[in-house]
Write a structure and sequence with these properties.
Layout (H helix, E strand, L loop, with lengths): L30 H6 L1 H8 L5 E4 L7 E2 L13 E6 L14 H10 L4 E3 L5 E3 L2 E7 L4 E6 L13 H11 L6 H5 L4 E8 L2 E6 L6 H6 L12 H4 L13 E7 L3 E6 L24 E6 L3 H9 L5 E2 L7 H6 L3 E6 L4 E6 L9 H10 L2 H9 L3 E3 L23 H11 L5 E6 L4 H17 L2 E6 L2 H10 L4 E6 L5 H8 L13 H12 L3 H15 L8 E7 L1 E6 L2 E2 L15 E2 L2
Parallel strand pairs: 3-12, 3-13, 17-18, 17-19
Antiparallel strand pairs: 1-2, 1-14, 4-5, 6-7, 7-9, 8-9, 10-11, 11-12, 13-21, 14-21, 15-19, 15-20, 16-20, 22-23
Helix pairs in contact: 10-12, 11-13, 16-17
Amino acid sequence: MKKESMGQKKYSKGTPVFKAGTAENQGIPSAKESLLSRRTFLKMTSTGMTVACLGGLAGSLIPAEAKAAGSPVFGGILKIGMNADVVGLDPHVATAQSSHIVLHHVCDGLLAIDASVTPRANLAERWEILDGGMRYRFYLKRGVTFHNGSKMTAKDVKYSLERAANPKIAPVAASHLKAMDAVTILDDHSIEVKMKEPFAPFLNVLANELMGPYIIPDGEGEKQGGKITSPVGTGPYEFIEHKPDQHVILKKFKDYQSLNEDEPSGFYGKKMAYLDELRFMPITEPSVRVDALTVGDIDFCYYVPGKDIARLQKAKNTIVHRSASYQFSTINFNCSTPPMNNKKLRQAIAYAINKEEIVAVSQDGFAVIGTDPIPPGHRWRTPTLDKTAEFNLEKAKKLLKESGYKGENLVMKSTKSYRFMDKTAEMAQIQLQRLGINLKVQYLDWGTMLTDFIQGNYQCMAFGYTAKQDPNTVASENYWSKGLNLNRYGHSAIDKLVEKGMRTVAFEERKQIYDQIHLITLGPDGDFPMIVTMHNDNLDATTAKVKGYTVWPMNFPVFYNVWLEM
């Protein structure tokens, strides 16, 4: 198990570390109110709009676009309380969200997604799609400087794309770049990517914060011995050091110039490095992280569990930032080995899981029930995705009997690093006991659990995914036998549909393909290689002196354009 080293002083749960607030700063809805008002909340956020709940305005939801009053100021250190330490810092290899929250401040991709999850020009000034999607030509921005002082050229882009597409180096990124055939340098500031076959999601892959190939200097991987531990990019902040279980430190890159002058939106738009330093500090216990915020030892608290919202309501000078989220929580099954290769058993579990209970316990109501990885409000959402197994214990018992289950123990892996994963496993254990299934929960540190998941070293797992801007990412990672296939699931019809979705360009046609994939995998009579339990709200918190912060549905905090009120 991971050592509980916080990199700062510990806080006693029983110690009062905040003063009681007044009625004027009780502004965040209770869990019950949150559920009742969700239709309005989702309507506000479905177009990419985010909202912030401010403790000083009773019952208010304030649009995050209404930025804090006052002019930005330069300087200061932002102390960021994270729920987990980074799991590697190689820009092409890392898969953990905690790693990429750091990396997207250091590195840039050719493209970047905006708040509506649309790919926009970033290091690439523009691009052309040629020969029906068989060739992509990218024209690069000039004068972009790496943190090592060198200027970015096509040589760096070619190196980065090829490194990310190498399964021996970056297996996860490479699984999404299988269609890429060759990268050709046309001149110092233009490249051409030749495809093996048309691949409709290609631009979305290049813009993806987790699998998109960040652009790094030519040969940087070899320079660092094959595995990058000190990332070098073109972003507004440069890497200084990582002390495991203590901190990652980034400092303002003095030669940085924003790649775009457009209004900031998601990862796109104008980026200003107002802060001198970003200090990411892993504080794995959620309540301890909230304590650290209320006493001012950190300025930003990432991932506030719903149960701690009331505490922040009572604390002075804190702001909770909330938005609906595109992330999703799951129960995953390894479908390749007994007993989880038994479809009837997986179906029985799907009908025995009470998602309302899981939302109430794990998120205190700050979530919506999940039916598919694509959430309500997403541009790819369709009515078909509403259809799935709904809690029905009698049907679950019938399916369990048909499965031939003999009372053997099942093991579900989980982690304490994310409360919703922890509590999902606890509730699954209780709910499956009602069905007559013996489920044991095994807790791991986050890094070990993530590795086990990718390598298929699990039977059942309480997991969670970052937001996906294209449904192909979900399908190719979880259902496609030729891809990452995280659930070790094999289905010839699904393989054909996934590949058809990759080749199909028309938006509405692609929607219909993913509707079919949903019905086979997660529909009422689906195979259930996994169960989507919920879409957690984004809940972050800051001290009142943090200005310019905006929460958004992709659940990746952005600290450029943020400043501290001195």
